[in-house]
Amino acid sequence: PGDDNGSASESLLSGFKTIAVLRDSAREKNIFIHGKIDDQEAVVILEKTPIREESLPEIFKDSRLKLEMKNDIYSTYQLQPPPHLNEIKTTVVCPATEKHVKKYLRQETFLLEESGEDYLSITLPFIQSQSFSVQWVYNILEKKAEADRIVHEDPDPKVGFVLLPDFKWDQKQLDDLYLIAIVHRRDIKSLRDLTSEHIPLLSNIRKGGQEVIQKRYSVPATKLRVYLHYQPSYYHLHVHFTSLSYDAPGCGVERAHLLSDVIQNLEADPKYYRSRCLSFLVRADDGLLRKFKDAGRV
Amino acid sequence: PGDDNGSASESLLSGFKTIAVLRDSAREKNIFIHGKIDDQEAVVILEKTPIREESLPEIFKDSRLKLEMKNDIYSTYQLQPPPHLNEIKTTVVCPATEKHVKKYLRQETFLLEESGEDYLSITLPFIQSQSFSVQWVYNILEKKAEADRIVHEDPDPKVGFVLLPDFKWDQKQLDDLYLIAIVHRRDIKSLRDLTSEHIPLLSNIRKGGQEVIQKRYSVPATKLRVYLHYQPSYYHLHVHFTSLSYDAPGCGVERAHLLSDVIQNLEADPKYYRSRCLSFLVRADDGLLRKFKDAGRV
User: Fold this and answer.
1) Which of A43, B41, B171, B224 has its CA 20 to 30 A from that of A260?
2) How far is the CA of B247 from the CAs of A243, B36, B139, in angstroms?
3) Residue ranges of domains in chain A, CATH in brackets
């Protein structure tokens, strides 16, 4: 983006009108806000940045401390660091649809068990009826957007993929390393579509992703968690690479499937993911939960 | 504290000398540092503060944004908020003992892949050589200890189990509900020992546990995460029941195995858990990691 963009965006949020806080986490120091920018619906996500080891000397040298409490060997303070060490990572979705707003709203969750038949009779028709757009994924694959963020590409149309940092990772420290491999093939919606036919693709992503991450970030395979989500947040096959030391959102057993397990399961049973009952989380307001209820499956 | 304290403490950390970063969390935006204040050992903990709803108008009004990326409706920025909204909570332990330093030190972890053969040739001999005592488990099963904590018992010697709260759960609220089912059979060390022979046992635990938790705590099966650990923390088969809303330690995909998946896998392949490669975490100081290294498997 040129300077024009820069100065236009500098004040983008000065007229932001908050409608509601959708979610916040004191643990993660983030907040998800629904509001309006001019007359457009928007979701704004603010998240404080991690404290980096390199910045410690400066934090200690130039900061001011205010004593809060002292007891024996323990004391607590408020520290005001130099302003430039205090950025807040900001994500703006604008114009946002109702679906975006719902996505970020904290909701009660339920565990569903979906058989292969449930998928065909309930989930698949639901996904199709929603016509989720994955245009932004195609923009990446076609280099129409985020081209400068691509870390690695294997252009093969059958087994190729692009690897790029996830939005959640600011790439400033390796502790919360988070990359996504997006496949070039456009005919695989999720884990459910995978058969033994896709083993070469999956193995290529696993090997290629690990090699690039080792080479570029010096993070070995033994320090990586490589997995798929079910349900995914978008229906174009992608694989998550996160640092093992990072307790990444969505790496719980109720959503994540290790790529190494997926490959083994397909090797043993080509139709494993077509036939198995898969457990996954749905939120109370997810239309899919309603469909499962209507079908008498919950 | 009076003004004297205030001004003395204001510069307390300006001469802080970092010895080592003990631990940090990109998710939680904190960092634990071992160092020296003058000539005294100290541990300093820095943690960014949560973003408060009340401060949003000021953040939006007076902040400057720097565009990082734009793709379709999504854009990301660095936001520099007014300095006074950017405090870092600081905790100082000084003088600190070696025990304090160890307490905060994070152990590095590694992901191992254990084949069925690795289990027999490396892991099983290691477990046996350690002669981990599970006497405390037998005490529970024989009602010699914790008898008053048992929530439910199925006394059947083949498929029976006792259900009791995990120590991590204080039973005061349901948000972090955590119960453990311990089997009466004493011949099953872990997931690795399970075959189709054990399906009736596993199904009984699943059904019995869910029914009791529904009846006693009014928590339905759709709000429960039911799983086994691999590696487990003790080698006598047990199953974890945690509230889906609780981000319980050990429910990540690198350690947890959903009981419903385990049952299905054994139904499809009686020897699934004898033959598969299983991934699991080890800490740098775990003797098992050493054994895998000695065997050239890492």
Assistant:
1) B224
2) 18, 35, 30
3) 13-49+87-105 (3.30.200.40), 52-86 (no CATH), 107-294 (3.30.428.10)
